[in-house]
Write a structure and sequence with these properties.
This protein has 219 residues and is mostly helical. Helices cover 79% and strands 2% of the residues.
């Protein structure tokens, strides 16, 4: 519930951080995006809503938050995060997949399999598409590293995906942030973004379950 509250009211949390830390806020934004995309064990951070909220705050407080600096820093953070994640997968991937903390795997097989399904369907383009899918976004570069995807191919799709994700969602927040309805219904907007983000995963899960059920009935 605390995580859900943070996601739905991320604008309030970020505004408080902005007022408390001023120019350090740029570094905090950078680290949040870098950690979500760069550390395979941190896939639950709300990247989509954070970008939207950052754009909204840049529109509301232009004297404190420069939209061009925000876009540049978060773009670099997204590229650097995926690159680190890819490197971790390439060097430590097989070890991390089997690592347990307090008797539990830190990376679930189901999450890895779901990400591998994306690679099977979309190939290298998964690095771009995954930017817009929570959890898969964090695991895609890690799995690409395990699969020994060529770095030149990976970095190309990494840069393209980072541009589309960061610039797209941040500017949407920037231009919609001044609309009164959005300001008054921010929680609903963020909830909609969250649902839209996880919808592809839910659809795949439902398809998979119904597919197994039909196979079982036929047998």
């Amino acid at each position: 519930m605390e995580i859900l509250d943070y996601i739905l009211h991320i604008d309030k949390y970020l505004e408080t951080i902005l007022n408390d830390y001023q120019h350090w806020f740029y570094l905090i934004l950078f680290l949040l995006i870098f950690i979500e995309t760069g550390l395979v064990v941190m896939p639950f951070l709300p990247g989509d809503s954070l970008l939207f909220a950052a754009g909204m705050l840049a529109a509301a407080f232009p004297a404190q938050l420069n939209i061009y600096i925000v876009l540049g820093l978060l773009w670099i953070a997204a590229i650097a995060g995926d690159t680190v994640n890819y490197t971790i997968g390439k060097t430590l991937g097989t070890k991390l997949v089997t690592t347990k903390i307090f008797g539990k795997r830190i990376i679930k097989d189901s999450a890895i399999l779901k990400t591998e399904d994306f690679f099977t369907k979309y190939g290298s383009k998964t690095i771009v598409i995954a930017r817009f899918v929570p959890i898969v976004r964090t695991l895609a570069p890690f799995v690409a590293g395990i699969g020994r995807m060529g770095y030149s191919i990976f970095i190309t799709y990494n840069v393209i995906g980072a541009v589309l994700w960061v610039v797209g969602l941040t500017l949407i927040g920037y231009f919609l942030g001044n609309i009164e309805w959005v300001q008054n219904n921010f929680s609903k907007v963020i909830l909609g973004i969250t649902i839209a983000s996880v919808l592809p995963i839910l659809v795949e899960i439902i398809k998979e379950k119904f597919g197994k059920k039909k196979v079982a009935e036929q047998e």
